[in-house]
Amino acid sequence: MKFCVDTNEKNSWYIGTNDYGSKMINKFETVMFQGNGYMGMRAVAEEKQLHEQRDMFISGTFDAFPNEVTELPNLPDLINLEIKVDGQPLCLKDGYVENYHKSLNLKNGELTRTFDWIINNKAVHFNYRRFISMYDKHLFVSQVEVSSAQDELNVQLSSGIDGRQSNDESQHLMEGDKRLYDGQYIQMQAETQQSHIDFVFNVRHKIYVDEVLLSDKPYINMSRRQIFGNYNVDLQAGQTLTFIKYANVYTSIDQDADPNKLTDDSVAALKRASLSNYNESLQKSDRVWNHNIWQKNYVQIDSEDEKPQVAINFARYQLAANTPLDPRMNIGAKGITGEGYKGHTFWDTEIFMLPYYTFTMPDVAKNLLTYRYLGLQGAHKKAQGNNYQGAQFPWEAADPTDGETAPLWGSADIVTGKPMKIWSGFIEQHVTSDIVIAIMDYLHATGDQVFADDMGYEIILDAAKFWSSRLEYNEEQDVYEINDVIGPDEYKEHADNNAFTNYTAQWCIQKAIKVYNLIKEENPELYLKLSNKLNLETTYESWINQVNRIYVPQPNIEGVIPEDDQYLSLKNVDVSKFQVNDQISTIFKTYNLSQINQMQITKQADVLLLIYLFENMFDDNIKQSNWNYYEPRTTHDSSLSQSIHSILASDLGLNDEAYKFYEMSCETDLGIHIGKAIRGLHMAACGGLWNMTVEGFGGVRIDNGKLRIEPHLPASWNSLKYQINWQGSTVRVGIDGEKMFVQVIGDGIEFVSYGREYQVPANGSLEIELPVEETVTD
């Protein structure tokens, strides 16, 4: 594996670089992102640099312009710190730079940057540190130390709140009041233009020379959308100037804030926070990282090099840093790491990220599924707008009540030169099934009956109601079809009877029938409530009439399941030259989407995703036949593709292929190519890394509601240890050579492994001899 960052074989929580050039500046800004789920900042330098992207976002604060879809607004810059040494502005393109190093500690999210700047024959040392607090979600703290061993220095500093930020030159915020509290606390207020969310930003500075606190009352400079504090300090040779910046952000939609008292309460909060020095504030945040995140899950990989462990640490850090704990919000496809996809939530959460949370932090998984329950209003709105019934969940979701937020137009067509219409928001409908899949996995893994009764069952029934209304009756064949859709393979628009869509729609209705009968028999009160709300009596009759007549494509004589009615008759094309792992869709330099639509070219796992999610429906020969057919026709242009292929390859004994796709996924964001990461991380790839490690190589799967553990370790791994949560108990698994160790903390569990059932008693453990695995030659 080749990473864009340096790693350390003795510290798998470290990623760093000695490169401060402009070529990779946006990539490093993304990869070294800092966040706590509420607030997120890209890893830009404190001083402004050419080609940088100074993004800061607060989860859930969506805003829109007329005729545009809603997006997370890029907020005022709090990182800024301009420094002059003897009147010379700090700029790494001037003078000489030595000993440059920038690194991110993945264990606690602290970003550091150090270098020596030689200017006007003076060597000045800079040491920057900063973090976003996990202890106080509103708080950001940074520190810089400036010193010169041999020379006297005059240091001027300017730091504050810079509201001149935009989303691709569009400004979402209307500027409000600016003021100074107590001669020390700088404040700026703002409001989004369409959604009318109020923001309050506060900053306080502290300045020390050799640990002696100087007067921290700044000279204030106010201008349009800006308020800065300015300081002037003379240093003797050998002295160290320490400049600490405390900043916080509050909004009128915060759960923990009174929207009528934001200005005063937020300043009071910053006063309390600034009583602690930098190290004390960092330690408070460290403890939350350790207790709330790392103690609830671990993955330990003993391999030939450190990169697999670094990759899984990176993935888990980014998931924590980008996942809000407010159930009104969800994980964007690029989290809050950049402007890509406008902060919108896709099916990425349910299929690629929720397994991690369901198995390790089920309380977070419940929040993410609650978001979908809160989105039923928007799902009804979308269904009604399309003349359907029930809950048709949006392809792209923002505020859960909004419904569909997908844009209408994309980039230019290589052939026509005109913008390409984005059909996903109209006809990529499998997201409704994906949500039900995630709910069922959550219920199996947790046994959370309260969630089922309060929210889960209603979502399942409402989703099935949509699918029932979406089915199209083919009188000639006496079957129900689903025509004109996009399946997971987004290179096939307007497909008829996409296999993934049809299978999962039928499965949703089957689950709804079971839920209907269950609650009718066991919970009459809930049945009456949901029956009146969803008109279940009439709907149930439709389900019974339709469910066994839904057309689901069957394997042909070669064992291949048609991706849709047209796919197998399309033109064959060699796609190997397009299978390049740089996250750039090079195929569009040769063909437009209309042409690709007429070729056997697949973007990502589609039929293979169906086989992965519903493995019990298909025997090994069918699985192998479909792998042999579809993988060579797949470009893997989507970052969602590699993890599914890796896990399925593990299941099939294709160990070399499994590891090849694993390495590709590790390089999605950490790789040496610039790719699409400059617009934000690929959060589904982060979830996919955990899935490949624990579900693929570690062998964890939910099999007909039961836990199954059948590991397939890569040849280069000596051992793997991980922790999951199963129905309220902590389960620790270790795979070492031909042995597997299972330890349970809590109630006893049952699981299946290679056809045998095992029981582990409460607070007990078990050692199992693993069968010798037969490797298929790739």
From TrEMBL:
<dbReference type="InterPro" id="IPR005195">
    <property type="entry name" value="Glyco_hydro_65_M"/>
</dbReference>
<dbReference type="InterPro" id="IPR011013">
    <property type="entry name" value="Gal_mutarotase_sf_dom"/>
</dbReference>
<dbReference type="GO" id="GO:0005975">
    <property type="term" value="P:carbohydrate metabolic process"/>
</dbReference>
<dbReference type="GO" id="GO:0004553">
    <property type="term" value="F:hydrolase activity, hydrolyzing O-glycosyl compounds"/>
</dbReference>
<dbReference type="Pfam" id="PF03632">
    <property type="entry name" value="Glyco_hydro_65m"/>
</dbReference>
<feature type="domain" description="Glycoside hydrolase family 65 C-terminal">
    <location>
        <begin position="701"/>
        <end position="760"/>
    </location>
</feature>
<feature type="binding site">
    <location>
        <begin position="603"/>
        <end position="604"/>
    </location>
    <ligand>
        <name>substrate</name>
    </ligand>
</feature>
<protein>
    <submittedName>
        <fullName>Glycoside hydrolase family 65 protein</fullName>
    </submittedName>
</protein>
<dbReference type="InterPro" id="IPR012341">
    <property type="entry name" value="6hp_glycosidase-like_sf"/>
</dbReference>
<dbReference type="InterPro" id="IPR005194">
    <property type="entry name" value="Glyco_hydro_65_C"/>
</dbReference>
<dbReference type="InterPro" id="IPR017045">
    <property type="entry name" value="Malt_Pase/Glycosyl_Hdrlase"/>
</dbReference>
<keyword id="KW-0378">Hydrolase</keyword>
<dbReference type="Pfam" id="PF03636">
    <property type="entry name" value="Glyco_hydro_65N"/>
</dbReference>
<feature type="active site" description="Proton donor">
    <location>
        <position position="490"/>
    </location>
</feature>
<feature type="domain" description="Glycoside hydrolase family 65 central catalytic">
    <location>
        <begin position="315"/>
        <end position="690"/>
    </location>
</feature>
<dbReference type="GO" id="GO:0030246">
    <property type="term" value="F:carbohydrate binding"/>
</dbReference>
<feature type="domain" description="Glycoside hydrolase family 65 N-terminal">
    <location>
        <begin position="22"/>
        <end position="252"/>
    </location>
</feature>
<dbReference type="GO" id="GO:0016757">
    <property type="term" value="F:glycosyltransferase activity"/>
</dbReference>
<keyword id="KW-0328">Glycosyltransferase</keyword>
<dbReference type="Pfam" id="PF03633">
    <property type="entry name" value="Glyco_hydro_65C"/>
</dbReference>
<keyword id="KW-0808">Transferase</keyword>
<dbReference type="InterPro" id="IPR037018">
    <property type="entry name" value="GH65_N"/>
</dbReference>
<feature type="binding site">
    <location>
        <begin position="347"/>
        <end position="348"/>
    </location>
    <ligand>
        <name>substrate</name>
    </ligand>
</feature>
<dbReference type="InterPro" id="IPR008928">
    <property type="entry name" value="6-hairpin_glycosidase_sf"/>
</dbReference>
<dbReference type="InterPro" id="IPR005196">
    <property type="entry name" value="Glyco_hydro_65_N"/>
</dbReference>
<comment type="similarity">
    <text>Belongs to the glycosyl hydrolase 65 family.</text>
</comment>
